Amino acid sequence: MSRIRFLSLVTTFAMSSSSSWSCSKCTFLNSPSRKLNCMICLTPVPLPSSSPTPLSVSSNDEPKWACKGCTFLNTYKNSACDICGTRSPTSSLLGFDDLTDSGLESSNNPDCSVGSVFFPLRRCSKRKAMDDAVVEVDGGSVVSSESMGFVKKKNKEIETKGVASDSGASFSCLKILSYNVWFREDLELNLRMRAIGHIIQLHSPHLICFQEVTPEIYDIFRKSSWWKAYSCSVSVDAAQSRGYFCMLLSKVGVKSFSCKSFRNSIMGRELSIAEVEVPGRKPLVLATSHLESPCPGPPKWDQMFSRERVEQANEAIEILRANANVVFGGDMNWDDKLDGRFPLPDKWVDVWEVLKPGDSGFTYDTKANPMLSGNRTLQKRLDRILCRLDDYKLGGIEMVGKEAIPGLSYVKEKKVRGEIKELELPVLPSDHFGLLLTLSPK
Q: pLDDT per residue over 263-295, tens digit each?
């Protein structure tokens, strides 16, 4: 027998007699034949009294909350009613999809959780808001979101070293993020970009290299709380005039932004450059690019644009090599088997190779990124950070954006043995993983 049917029968039976007695703890109307304790909560029958006992009085002085579904008084240590399972009005479902019931989801009922245990549970049609609280500290910020898998920190626990401040104090470390944010706008764009914003708030990089930014993505970022801490290499007007582009962001002082189009690009690819002034340290040049993409197609399926990509890599290095301290990060679309070794001159290093020897470092990986598991297998280290550093030293490098966004999925059609099948796949912030580099002064 279902629980709702059981409670209905019990209620009908209990109310059939005019001599029913009300339980002092849960207010249930018990049958006169129930002489020892309450049928629902087993509270002993109250002793006869000359004055009625208020229904809200319990057998002890511990603070309690009244269930809106059945009026049972629960202790505050319980997040759900002991009797009917209705959630406490003070409880939170942070990190989970809200559950509603078909009978109570209306504007007339302010709490859709009331009595929901008595109805079949289903996924909520309203996506949970992901506007998480952000703690600002000296220009940096940390998102306090457990739903994104991030750890909450109290103000005094937030790492503030290396964060830009008005005092101009020197940095103990410098964080640089490179990320291809994926220009596909029909796949949960707002939530993906918000997830990238959470990554920025968590790590608080001083410098950011973005690739595949569209005007829509630019607008989403520009309206985000973290944006105001950065200077941007692309103006609002310029962003609206482009299909997609690279851009640089800086929390530290910027001497200049510049952009150089590649001579041989048929895809409008370019090199974006920022000269930044790190407080108390030597100047640094930051650069990003999105080198020519392989686009195989009929009839020969050989349009890999390797020659163009190699020429662009050489052109970029030639422009940057005169500087003593350079960080060049971006989506290089590089394939060592097809393009050969990246053309690095003396004193230049590929950071991942130096700090993670033996690690494949695939930033585009259909096996590690479940959002891409419906695609043909492809594992490449497309994204790289390349450096020449006379006055800084490498601290560490890691991949970011490897976790799926909680509670979010999309449907992809895939042809399997001549039959079209629908796959429900998780959603990650991008089809690429990002790279986070940490530098420290020598």
A: 999 999 999 999 999 998 999 999 999 999 999
Between CA 94 and CA 79 the distance in angstroms is: 13
Q: Which single residue is written with the structure tokens 């006169």?
A: 32
HSE-CB for 223 with a 13 A CA cutoff: 10
H/E stretch holding 203 reads helix 189-203
What distance in Å separates the CA atoms of residue 37 and residue 374, rounded to the nearest whole number? 59
* Structural domain span for residue 312: 163-441
Assess if residue 306 is contained within a domain. Answer: yes
Query: How many Å apart are CA 73 and CA 333, to the nearest integer?
Result: 62
**In-domain check, residue 356:** yes
CATH number of the CATH domain containing 322 = 3.60.10.10
In terms of DSSP bridges, do strands 174-180 and 207-213 run parallel, antiparallel, or are they unpaired? parallel
Provide the token pair at 186: 């029909």
DSSP helix/strand/coil, 4: helix
In angstroms, what CA-CA distances link 250 with 213, 226, 231, 363, 436? 16, 12, 5, 23, 14
**How far apart are alpha carbons 237 and 85 in whole angstroms?**
54
Please confirm whether the linkage preceding 299 is cis (ω < 30° from 0). yes
Give, in order, the Cα–Cα distances in Å from 282 to each of 13, 122, 133, 139, 442: 84, 58, 35, 21, 10
Closest CA to 361 of 345, 342, 376, 388: 342
Whole-angstrom distance, CA of residue 49 vs CA of residue 108: 40
Split into its structural domains, the chain has a count of: 1
Does residue 331 form part of some domain?
yes
Q: How confident is the model at residue 201 (pLDDT cuts 50, 70, 90)?
A: very high
| Helix, strand, or coil (residue 136) | strand
Q: What is the pLDDT of residues 125-137, one digit of tens each?
A: 334 343 333 333 2
Q: How far is CA 241 from CA 112, 141, 217, 230, 266, in A?
A: 46, 31, 13, 22, 18
Residue 31 falls inside a structural domain: no
